[in-house]
Specification:
Number of helices: 2
Order of helices and strands: EEEEEEEEEEHH
CATH class of the largest domain: Mainly Beta
Number of strands: 10
CATH topology of the largest domain: ATP Synthase, domain 1
Strand order of the largest sheet: 2-1-9-8-5
Number of domains: 2
Distance between the termini: 34 Å
Length: 135
């Protein structure tokens, strides 16, 4: 049985991760999903949240936005709009983004077009803050 599979996490601007990893946990559109070597192939949407993987026995995390994941027996490719490592997160900028999103959501209802965009911005900011603070 395989002990590793290749993980690639890419955005339109760059390849964020391309490593042989031992496992993966990612935020799927229908809920969190995990992958081990030799997993059954599938394709799914991802959502805003924290992606974690184990490389050489150590756990690493990324803050990711929405996108898609392709899982094969020996490779997982995740394509998202944004992906950040903890050291790349500007904590003050993320806090300001959270405040802006919270302010935008005040007075909006679920029927307002702007509500979903503000909600997504809030979730991205919260994810980035948690990642940076190690929560």
């Amino acid at each position: 049985m395989e002990k590793e599979f290749t993980l690639e996490v890419a955005t339109p601007e760059r390849m964020v991760v391309s490593l042989p990893v031992e496992d993966l946990a990612a935020p799927g559109f229908e809920g969190q999903f995990g992958v081990l070597p030799g997993h059954t192939p599938y394709l799914c949407r991802t959502r805003i949240g924290e992606l974690s993987y184990r490389y050489q026995g150590k756990k690493y995390v990324l803050a990711v936005s929405e996108g898609f994941a392709e899982v094969l027996h020996d490779k997982v490719t995740i394509v998202v709009e944004t992906a950040e490592k903890p050291e790349e997160v500007d904590l003050e900028r993320a806090r300001r983004a959270r405040e802006r999103a919270e302010q935008r959501m005040k007075g909006l209802t679920l029927d307002d077009r702007e509500f979903l965009a503000a909600q997504a911005a809030l979730q991205r900011a919260i994810t980035r803050i948690k990642l940076k603070e190690g929560v």
